[in-house]
Design brief:
It contains nine helices and no strands. It is flat.
């Protein structure tokens, strides 16, 4: 079980955290768009192949259950995005009563995410070896992607030196915040994102509540 945890979580966490998520979400919009463009052109096709490998390797029962969970995850994400927008809008117009009422809907939403992960766990356990093999196949690509994205960021900073301080501060802030998050929880969520992915480019955003 330890071998499974090390291989899979290292691969999947790298995909969703280091290779794209950290830098893209914490950078200026122009750089974010460039990184996302790189990811969609170079990373997305390969992720699609790994998803296909996962889906084809599942039993009919696990495949059916996983697709149902993917639909639930997509619906929950839409609800989370809308709730966030509603809370921000309420704050913008200084409607504290509405804002507080909306915040009460956060806990039930988080519980729904937790329940989703509980249902996903048996599928991951049933297909441990399949996930390990995908992780092994992914390792070389992850090294290449991380290097390419870092090179892209460096090139952008060289062309726009004023961005350096802002990006470094953002990354530092992210790293500090990560110190307060449980490593095993982060890894499980990262693996869940991969398994719950429905095949679109939204894989580069949060699909599971953190």
């Amino acid at each position: 079980m330890k071998k499974y945890s090390i291989i899979i979580t290292t691969i999947i966490v790298s995909i969703f955290s280091q290779s794209f998520h950290v830098y893209a979400l914490l950078s200026k919009d122009g750089l974010k768009d460039k990184i996302k463009g790189y990811a969609e052109q170079n990373i997305l096709p390969t992720l699609s192949e790994w998803k296909s490998t996962l889906d084809k390797g599942l039993s009919n029962e696990d495949f059916s259950t996983l697709n149902a969970l993917r639909e639930q995850a997509s619906a929950l994400k839409i609800s989370r995005i809308q709730l966030t927008k509603d809370i921000v809008s309420a704050k913008d117009i200084e409607n504290e009563q509405t804002s507080e009422m909306l915040k009460k809907r956060i806990s039930p939403l988080k519980e729904s995410y937790k329940n989703l992960l509980v249902q996903l766990k048996p599928i991951a356990i049933n297909n441990k070896n399949l996930l390990i093999n995908i992780g092994k196949e992914a390792a070389p690509s992850l090294i290449e992607w991380k290097k390419s994205i870092k090179d892209l960021i460096k090139k952008e900073i060289d062309a726009n030196p004023d961005m350096k301080t802002e990006i470094e501060k953002s990354i530092k802030k992210y790293q500090i915040l990560q110190l307060f998050k449980d490593e095993q929880v982060k890894k499980k969520l990262a693996l869940a994102r991969f398994m719950l992915w429905n095949g679109n480019s939204e894989i580069f955003n949060n699909d599971v509540e953190e």
